[in-house]
Amino acid sequence: MATTDTPTVIRSSFHPDVESYEQVNRDADRLLTKPGKGYLALLGMAIGLVLLMVVAELHNIWFGLGMSGLTNPVGWGVYITTFVFWVGIGHAGTLISAILYLFRAPWRQSIYRFAEAMTVFAVLTAALFPIIHIGRPWFFYWLLPLPSQRHLWPNFRSPLLWDVFAVTTYLTVSSVFFYIGLIPDIAAARDTAVNPMRKRVYTILSLGWKGTDREWRHFTRAYLFLAALATPLVLSVHSVVSWDFAVSIVPGWHTTIFAPYFVAGAILSGVAMVVTLMVPVHRIFGLGAYFTPTHYDRLAKLLLLTSLIVGYAYGMEYFMAYYSGELFERDVFWDRVTGQYWWAGWSMITFNAFVPQLLWIPKVRRNLNAFFLISIFVNIGMWWERFVIIVPSLAHSYEPWKFMNYHLTWVEASILMGSFGWFFMWFLLFLRYLPGLSIAEIKEVLPPPMRDHDPAAHMEQIDASGTAEVLPTGYFDHAGSR
Fold this sequence. Notes:
Distance between the termini: 41 Å
Structural class: mainly alpha
Radius of gyration: 25 Å
Shape: globular
Number of helices: 16
Helix content: 55-70%
Order of helices and strands: HHHHHHHHHHHHHHHHEE
Strand order of the largest sheet: 1-2
Largest sheet: 2 strands, antiparallel
CATH topology: Formate dehydrogenase/DMSO reductase fold
Number of domains: 1
CATH class: Mainly Alpha
Number of strands: 2
C-alpha cells in the first residue's frame, strides 16, 4: 500500500498560525472591507465624544475661560495636563517603532503600524490644547514667528513657543516616517481594491509603486534614515516639553531629572496605549495570528522595564526634595501625598509603579484581559502624573496666602473626554481606509513560498548529525552554515 508524505509547512516562530503570503493579504484586506457592528458602535461613541468637546469649547469661547477651573495662581490645569499627556503618547509611538527597527526586533512587524499611527493622531490631539488654552483660538497664529502688522515677534524664551517648534517638527517627521512605511502596503491595497474611488485614491497615495528592486532599495534606505533621525528627535523634543517646567523656579518643577523622567514616562504611556489599541482590534477583527502571546509578552516586559524606571524617578524626586533641605520643595512633595491632592498623588504612584509589577508573573503577561486592564490603569496613572506635576506645584507654591485649590469644571471634563474621542475617531478611520497591518514587513519574517516544502530540500549542506536550527524568522539553518 503506497503512502504519501504530508508536506511540511515552514512557519515563522513569531507567527506560527500564518501559513502563506496569501493569508497575510487576505487578513489585511479584511480590515478594509465593510465594517461590522462593533466597529460602528466604537466609531459612533468616538464621534459623540468629539461633538461633546465641540459644544464645551463653543461654550468656553462664548463665556470665556472663566468657565474653566483656571485661577491665579493655577493658570495651567486640565488643558496643559492633557497636552503633555498626548505629546508623551505621541513620542512613544515613533520611538517604539524606530528603535525596534534599528535593532531589527523580529516581533516588531505586526505591531509597529499601530504605534506609528498612534503617534500621528496623538500629536494631532495634543496640538488642540495650546489653542484651546489661550482662550481666543482665532489668535493662535500669534505663537508663530510670522511678520505682522504689530511689528512684534513672539517671545522665543517662552516655553509655549518652544512647544510650537517641538510639536510641528515632530509631527512633520513622524508623519513622513508613517507615510513612507505605508507606501508598499497602499500599493497592495490598490491592486486588490474594487471600489473605483478607493482605487483611484490608493493609486495617488502609492506614488506609482511597482515593487521593483530599485524602489525597494530606495525605500529601505529612506526608512532606515528616517528611523535614525526620529530616535534622537523623540528624545530631544520630549526633553524640550519637560523644560516647559524645569526652567521655571516653581517648587517641584526646577529639577534636572525632568528630561529623562519625561522620556521614560512617555515610553511607559505609549506602550500602554499600544496595548489598549491592540487588544480590542485583536478581538473585533480576529487577528490572533498576528498579535500572538509572544508579542504581548515582549510588550509586557517593555512596559515593566519603563515602569521600573518611572518608579525609580518617583523615588528620586522625593529623596532629592528631602535631601536638598529646601523648605518649599519639601512642602510641595509632602503636599502631593498628604494634602488636598493626595488621591491624585497616590493614584499616580499606584497605577504607574505598583500595578505593572504584576507583569513579573508570566500568566499575567500572557493573559489578554489582565494585560489590557493593566494598560488602562497605566494610562490613567500617566494622566494623573501630569496633573500632579502641574496643579499641586502651582496651587501650593511659595506664598501661603496664594495657596488655592483647583476644581475641575464640566467644560474641562468634556474637552478631556472629547480628546479621547478625537484620537480614537482618527484611529478607527485609519483602520477602515488604510492598511492596519504591515503586509510587506510581515512577509519579511515569513519563509518564502517554495515548490518543495521539505525544509531539508532547501539546505545547501547537511551536517553529520542532520540537525537544523529554526531561526526567528522561521527559516531553517544547520549548525555547519553559521
